[in-house]
Description:
This protein has 592 residues and is of the alpha/beta class. It folds into 3 domains: 11-236, DHBP synthase, CATH 3.90.870; 244-387, Threonylcarbamoyl-AMP synthase, C-terminal domain (Rossmann fold); 406-591, 3-Layer(aba) Sandwich (Rossmann fold). The chain is built from 21 helices and 22 strands. Strands 1, 2, 3, 4, 5, 6, 7, 8, 9, 10, 11 and 12 form a 12-stranded mixed β-sheet that branches. The protein starts with 10 loop residues before the first strand and ends with a strand. Bound molecules: threonylcarbamoyladenylate and magnesium ion (MG). Residues 38, 40-41, 43, 67-70, 103, 105, 117, 120, 122-124, 126, 146-148, 185-186, 188, 199-200, 231-234 line the site of threonylcarbamoyladenylate.
Amino acid sequence: MNRERKYDKTLLIDRCDKDGIADAAKHLREGEVVAFPTETVYGLGANALNADAVEKIYEAKGRPGDNPLIVHIYDKTQIEEIASEVTPLAQRLMDAFMPGPITVIMKKKDCIPDKVTAGLDTVGVRMPSDPTAHTFLEACACPVAAPSANLSGSPSPTMASHVMNDMNGYIYAVVDGGDSNYGLESTVVDATGSEPVILRPGAVTKEDIDALLSADTAYAGSLKAGDVPPAPGMKYRHYAPGAEVRIMMTPESASRITEIDEETEFKSLPEEEKQALFDTAAPYIKDVHDILASNPLARVGIYAGSEVKTMIAKLDDKLTASHVHFYCYGKAGDVEAASHGLFAGLRHLDLQAVDYILAAGFSDNGIGKAYMNRLSKAAGKKGEISPDMPQKSDSHISREGELSYDAFENVFTASVLFVSEENRALSCACEAIMTSLLRKNAPFCAEGDTSIGAELYCESAGLYAIDGEGPDKQMVKALKECCDINAAHHLAVRATPSVYNNNDLIIAMHDEQAYEIVKAFPDIADRVFSISTYAASKGLVFKNDSGKVLSVSIPDPKGENYETYCHTAKALKAWLEILLPYIVKDLGAEKV
Ligand code: TXA
Ligand code: MG
């Protein structure tokens, strides 16, 4: 499904901005799509009484509208407006768990268009407990149909930046309510009969429902090939990152293991605890080795508790250390924390362009049921994949929306990496500017061969970066105001060998940084430069009016005033515009 960019930019509205929320709510009521936070994940909302508005949700998600949507309310009195029958069971569930992370399926009223329910005669009703959701839905003053606010095929968003990454330019606004509390979508319960059926596990668990009803609640059966899906949404491969996901069942899965950090005297721990820690980390190392045996350049992501990272560091396995990116959800064994971080972790690791993700598994009860349900879907376990499951690369293509490489017989990818200290200001700016230049100049083809497409990318990293740190705010502001480039969603990446391996050309901000890289990794010396040595290697010499040769080195604006940041942003843009054709050529490509 083609996505059409509708807005120059999507408004990002802070939860404290009353006027902004009122404006977004008014636009939603009048037919626009607005994303809003909830305690589970962010939703992509439209007026549930307006079929044309609901259609726009699907255009923004890039998927046909054949999945029933949940209708969101802020007050239980709205239920009479949308449901034709509230069974005693539905009433009990709502009394106990609403507002909260539950969706209750009831018979619908005629005013709810078929577009919302995918032609079913039932409707899912949900009343979020998140205070920003409440404020926003109240301002909308209409029932709001909303699926999760991710692009079709990518993990559900748990932060406004995730929504922006997927939706910028495609919807009117995003209300930023911070990090979603639970991080997994609501429990969906069919309450049209006298016995509840759990269609999708979530933070309201089977155990919670059993305790309320003194019963043994049923889950809707897992799908077998050829079955008609009970909840139509289950036929899609959801929550899928680009990498191959493997589930790691280790002692971490069963219980909390001993908390340790870098300072812990490992030797002094009781034998059993040591063994459990070792047994938790060792399978990851083994898998990394197995992966590297068949693909020596593979980048591997690990989604696990912090003890796994600490243990792997303690075991000091060089091969693993140099190929792995971590995203730690919290203390090992904390299944709530693992659920909360799962989608953010999958997205983060995906951005590191890892080829594999090794993710901690948990036992299948309580919230662990919902966690394992989402993780197995990400891992593409059989039974939940549709036969026409999108190919791995689809998400990249639709994310790049405007670039079309369909016309080429063959397409190769190549990328340039900019390196600085912290990856929060200079290199982050270079990435944002270069990405925008590459987009503007695309498509590219192989040098001298127009039948082969060249998808060119840009990354950035920092020699001393802390993975996942946000960008320098002044830099973001300067890029926005001086270059009209958005870098707000940048996340810092540590420059590691696997990052270097993934890039064909490496340009550091300063000579010393380039030297440091070459010293540590002499075998990549022929593709490492600083901005000034790169310019010099192309014979580019710049002089001012009086003939003095100008330095190409860009000082770090950190700690300087905003004016310096603006100056830096403009200078970087000017340099990169000059260097663009040389970079494209070095990546083996040319403009079509
Ligand atoms: O936490 C959540 O539920 C989030 C937030 C935004 O509220 N929403 C969400 O929506 O996850 P979505 O569209 O990604 O998933 C909705 C699920 C699907 O599995 C869908 O099939 C099921 O709810 N569903 C909705 N209405 C239904 C109905 N009438 N009958 C059966 N299943 C229904
Ligand atoms: Mg969804």
